[in-house]
Amino acid sequence: MKIAAMFTDGSGGIVDRPDPQPVEDFVLVKIRSVPMCTEYKGFKREREQDAVGFGHEAAGEVVAVAQSGRVKVGDRVVVQPQLGCGACWLCLDGEHIHCQNGRRLPEGQTAGHTYAQYILKPDWLLSPFPEDISYKHAGMACCGLGPTFGAMQKMNVNALDTVMITGMGPVGLGGVINGHHRGAKVIAVESQPFRANLAQELGATAVFDPNDENVLDKIMDLTDGLGVDKAMDCSGASPAHRLMVDALRRKGQACFIGQGGDFPLGASRDMISKGIGLHGIWHYNLSFFPALVKMINQVGDQLDKFITHQYGMSQVQEAWEQQCTGNAGKVVLDPWA
Ligand SMILES: [Zn+2]
Ligand SMILES: [Zn+2]
Prior knowledge:
Structural class: alpha/beta
CATH topology of the largest domain: Quinone Oxidoreductase, Chain A, domain 1
Order of helices and strands: EEEEEEHEEHHEHEHEHEHEHEHHEHE
CATH architecture of the largest domain: Alpha-Beta Complex
Bound molecules: zinc ion
CATH superfamily of the largest domain: Medium-chain alcohol dehydrogenases, catalytic domain
Strand content: 15-25%
Low-confidence stretches: none
Number of helices: 11
Shape: globular
CATH class of the largest domain: Alpha Beta
Helix content: 25-40%
Number of strands: 16
Largest sheet: 7 strands, mixed
């Protein structure tokens, strides 16, 4: 099979690997759509060895199983990220993303990444979806819509809320779709013009530049001087974390989604006097998958705006270069082209 690689000369392309085989509960999935995430951040880095093994998002088709289990050949499935143990209380509770035990691929197998034509995955981490949803749209049930869907569920975002989302990368933009779909007023915060425009197109009521020194005043003006009901950061930048806490109304709630960043939190000033709730969200509880699929069915037009670029995996270099410009929403690869 073909998998994607970053080469020592700074280029990207594909290399050959043996086709994987199903073993025990590890099922063979033919990958049909690969949503690209933050892998491009390593593309410009110098490297001494060719790098392979990219990607954690995919939708595909079950093509072989070693034993009967939760999926069968022909099922169309979303490939869930990570390898939870499947036995601890977190996994049993649908929170496999926080599993502390982890699990490895079967001995001798290397097909654990999604920038590839095939992947091996335990059957219980494959979520079947119906025929009337395309692979391309179903793939948005990974990082495209997933983490912010989890955050919206956690904070019960609804039509009475104003929700602020900082960072309009491919996770934050998905948050705009989620918030808009629930009828909330969405305030987006982003400085990059392409992404700011796309946020507006996807339904953000206002988009503010975080470098504008009056950004907090503008948010207060839009919320009768009270602050936003709910907020989520998808940038991982410390100034955005600060803005999130400062822009929250009293008794408001916020979710940290973007990885990275540290910032000081005042126990009295930030937490106690305001009475706010802060959460960390990585993915969504697997029990939310049917609701997420229902939403994907209802926001197809939005998803076609959100997915700004599509490439064959043989053009992965071009795809990474495009992502590096910042002028992209979600970018999707076809591993068979
Ligand atoms: Zn576990
Ligand atoms: Zn991702």
